Amino acid sequence: MRAFKPHLRGLAPYPYASLEAPVKLDQNESPFDLPPPLKEEALRRMARLPWNRYPEIHAEGLRKRLSALLGWPEEGVVLAPGSNLLILALALAAEEVLDLSPSFPHYAHAARAAGTPYRAVPLLEGFGLPLEALLEAFTGGVFFLPNPHAPTGTLFPEEALKALAERAEEVGGLLVVDEAYREFSGTDFRALLGASPHVAFLRTFSKAFSLGGIRAGYLLAHPEVAQAVREVLPPFVLPAHTGAVLEVVLENPGYAEEVAAYVRAERERVYRRLLEHPTWRPYPSHTNFLLVRTPDAEEAFRHLLRQGVLVRRQDRYPMLQGCLRVTVGLREEMEAFLRAAFEVAYA
Ligand SMILES: *Cc1c(COP(=O)(O)O)cnc(C)c1O
């Protein structure tokens, strides 16, 4: 086979295997579907659309709405079907990708697919941000920094982000703060880091907005950076039906607050319960999931699955030996998880 670039050989697939289970806590999804009245309104708007027509070239109408809602210049907003696609576009455009290890696996995957030089700096013990090593390693290119961090759930301190933003400015690089979990930490780093051409923010509708299946995310950046990213993406990239859903959601964003409030409270409840576990150790989380260290990830995973509870193994990542990731689901789902978790301890 001589059709594809040789660097794509041996590219590992995205680490996800789909399994069926009654209690699904493996993908950091919202446990709630979009509220029915909003879903019905979105369907009505979809039905009114002319499906034979292309949507707007770069979702101009929605960008205008987002811009008004967030107080961010319209030219600095890029909408795409999923922030994963924006990560790929940024990785394609980047001179180099800088990453943490462990981190959200799609950054590395996108860099490798793009054939972009890639480096990762290990987290400190206890999952702290390795600021000194990062300041040294960040010499240009794009640095993807999830904050709150996946897969550990850690929230990095403001001062560190500020130092990294200054470094980005100094070296002419781009710091991309991925705020996929921001609704669960209640943080917004835009005010702190400002509208520098060297800082951008990634956001998604997949988590607190409960639209994982719809595929939508956006980038907030300096207009010039946004323009460069739009040029890498194909035209008309945001489907018309996705646009119809987003229109409704942006007119009624309040429900996402309720989802986030539920998740935060339930996360803390489950965290406290897990502190009483004789062998498992939960890490504090600012996201919609809990990272839990067990003596044996494979055994813990299989035991939970036998009890109908599907979680995600994280033990193949550096520093995460024995770790599982549990999405915060419905109260009864979390009770099923806790029952199974405590059973394994006394088996
Ligand atoms: C879930 C998640 C996303 C969301 O990706 P989408 O393509 O918008 O669904 C982005 N970044 C991180 C770190 C995530 O965990």
From TrEMBL:
UniProtKB keywords: Amino-acid biosynthesis, Aminotransferase, Histidine biosynthesis, Pyridoxal phosphate, Transferase
Reactions it catalyzes: L-histidinol phosphate + 2-oxoglutarate = 3-(imidazol-4-yl)-2-oxopropyl phosphate + L-glutamate
Gene Ontology molecular function: histidinol-phosphate transaminase activity; pyridoxal phosphate binding
Annotated pathway: Amino-acid biosynthesis; L-histidine biosynthesis; L-histidine from 5-phospho-alpha-D-ribose 1-diphosphate: step 7/9
Quaternary structure, from the entry: Homodimer.
PANTHER family according to UniProt: HISTIDINOL-PHOSPHATE AMINOTRANSFERASE, HISTIDINOL-PHOSPHATE AMINOTRANSFERASE-RELATED
Alphabetical list of CDD domains matching this protein: AAT_like
EC class: transferase
Protein name: Histidinol-phosphate aminotransferase
InterPro entries reported for this sequence: Aminotrans_II_pyridoxalP_BS (IPR001917), Aminotransferase_I/II_large (IPR004839), HisP_aminotrans (IPR005861), PyrdxlP-dep_Trfase (IPR015424), PyrdxlP-dep_Trfase_major (IPR015421), PyrdxlP-dep_Trfase_small (IPR015422)
